[in-house]
Amino acid sequence: MKIRLLTPLLVLALGGTAMAQTPSILEGLLPPGSASTSGQIIQMLAVLTVLSIAPGLLIMVTSFTRFAIAFSLLRAGLGLQTTPANLVMISLALFMTFYVMAPVFDRAWQNGVQPLVNNQITRDVAMNEITTPFREFMLRQVRDKDLRLFEDLADESFRTKADGVVDLRILIPAFMISELRRGFEIGFLIVLPFLVIDLIVATLTMSMGMMMLPPTVLSLPFKILFFVLIDGWNILVGSLIRSYT
């Protein structure tokens, strides 16, 4: 009987002890600051969210979009469906992005990330130092027409400030559509010579009466040979990288 009476008391005591230890556990897991426990939890969730969409951020604020579109249209122009493989094309575009963006990454690390890790600057200052190199890179590549489009559509609260600083909510979408346009322009120049080869082969096959033979079957070896003879990979990669200088 005594055991039955003591059991609820022990449960309450243990529950109270666990509840008392919960804030200390959270204080150990969460970074110190003036925010409440709920606010720190929200900050942690925000950080995890940013890390989960990091690949998307890489596409939005770097040169990856232009490279990926150019390589995709190259494969379409050659008439190859799965060669080179998607992994090869994406990897090449990714490493070319690291090559082009290396100065931007270095500045963001040296001026923003490293001082923040060493507790030399605050988070607000670090955020500004990290975004400034990317902002300058995007401003050099964005078209004025695209920038004006999003400025005209933007709310008054985040339009371009009096000091000339463009809000990232305006700059990033304008930069993305500028990159899409340039990627398709480069893709057109890539596909055009292959289209000429297709037309020539189609004309020859029609003149010889080979109606049932698809022209692409004969044009594919010639397009690959043409691309290899002109050292196409060297020309294409060099042209894409020089387009950012």
From TrEMBL:
Location(s) in or outside the cell: Cell membrane; Bacterial flagellum basal body
GO CC, any one term: plasma membrane
Keywords: Bacterial flagellum, Bacterial flagellum biogenesis, Bacterial flagellum protein export, Cell membrane, Cell projection, Cilium, Flagellum, Membrane, Protein transport, Signal, Transmembrane, Transmembrane helix, Transport
Entry keyword annotation includes Membrane: yes
Stretches that traverse the bilayer: 44-74, 86-105, 186-208, 220-241
Ribosomal protein is among the record's keywords: no
Major location category of this protein: membrane
Residues of the signal peptide: 1-20
Swiss-Prot/TrEMBL GO biological process terms: bacterial-type flagellum organization; protein secretion
Membrane topology, from the record: Multi-pass membrane protein
PANTHER family: FLAGELLAR BIOSYNTHETIC PROTEIN FLIP
Role summary: Plays a role in the flagellum-specific transport system.
Family: Belongs to the FliP/MopC/SpaP family.
Protein name from the UniProt record: Flagellar biosynthetic protein FliP
